[in-house]
Amino acid sequence: MLGLPTATIRSGSFTSTIVIILCWVYVISSIILVAELSFAAMQEDGVAEVSFTGLATKALGSKFGAFVAVVYASLSFSLLVACVSGIGSIVSQWFPWMNVVLAHALFPVAAGLVIGFFPFKVIDTANRLLCLLMLFSITSLVAIGLSVARTNILASLVPTSLSISAILPAIPVTVLTLGFHVITPFICKIAGNSVSEARKAVLIGGAVPLIMVLSWNLIVLGLAGANTATSSNDPISLLLSVNPSALSAVQGFAFSALATSLIGYAVSFPRQLLDTLELIFTKTKSEKQIHTQCQIFANGDSAGRIGFVTFSGRHNLGNTGRASFDGTRCFAASEVKPPSSTAESNAFHHKFVMMLVLGVPILIGSFFRSTFSRALDFAGVYANCFLFGILPPVMAYVQQSRKKLRSSILPGGDITLLLLF
């Protein structure tokens, strides 16, 4: 949302408004497909909730599911880099004398310390305060924009550029801004027992960010005025070049929006990264173990031999142990790790990964000043449009071909899936 005015500035307010609405129709159609896939998976497997990665694995296989997990981790990391870079730019403007690395590290380090060493209630309280600041700032911004830049906003509603080169950059960022595919399975869990109820929740809930984005786009382009040509290369620079009367509201909204996003990624991304690595390496390890097990039991006489065994059952999942063979019988003993040591090890790994995922974006944002827009480009063009643009119609087509999906609630059938793809 912060980077959107930079992408829409060349096409102008009128054209970009039409593009945003069309992108919203596309995004909502794709999300409704994910909702239908979620209900089909929950009904078939008898579970109360599924994940987006689980839907991809179910439709396209475990190897592709691992690939989707890697792409999703890349998307989260890109957005984390954008948050750190954007906050660093704002802090640098507030304190011009501050070292650039310190300016980028100030808030991420503070957030990391609070997340790592304080109860979750403290993190939640800080995040709520930032959300209140964000709501107050955008309300003030709308009021200031309507009073100060009314003339510019009305003038910008005249159609300007309709060229593809002016329109195209806005599409990936708009899709990234309006999409909420990842939480769609959770929406299906709480929305009711039918796809129609989930569709109603998606349509009504999805209209709220559409209104916010349209208002934000119109007002920022109107407030930027004559400064748009000089600062259109960097989204944060564009925001900070608006009419001085609205600068405080823009700074407050930009900082709080980036800060709440950074807290969210700092809390969730380390766990997501560890789960992704575990998914990849556990899968590879299990395939090797299955191959070895076949060789052991292929040997006719195993009496008196001992071996190594891992457990894949729910009770001993992940434990190692010893196996001894007595003729046709096999005895396996589990070596269970103490729960306390496992919990301590997991906590240490989580804190180490958190330091890593916050430290790397600080270095990237400090030494590559165009990181914000580049990270958004990668997240919007590659990761987001692949995960939430291409995958939903492909998964829907595969599931329909297997007769595991009810008739689509989107009109047009396979033709609509092809158009979305």
TrEMBL record:
Membrane-topology annotation of the record: Multi-pass membrane protein
Segments crossing the lipid bilayer: 12-35, 64-91, 97-118, 130-149, 161-180, 201-226, 246-267, 352-372, 378-398
Keyword Protease part of the UniProt annotation: no
Principal location class: membrane
InterPro entries reported for this sequence: Amino_acid_transport_2
Domain of life: Eukaryota
Any one Gene Ontology BP term: amino acid transmembrane transport
Location(s), subcellular: Cell inner membrane
UniProt keywords, alphabetically: Cell inner membrane, Cell membrane, Membrane, Transmembrane, Transmembrane helix, Transport
GO CC terms in record: plasma membrane
Name of the protein: Tyrosine-specific transport protein
Source organism of this protein record: Populus deltoides (Eastern poplar)
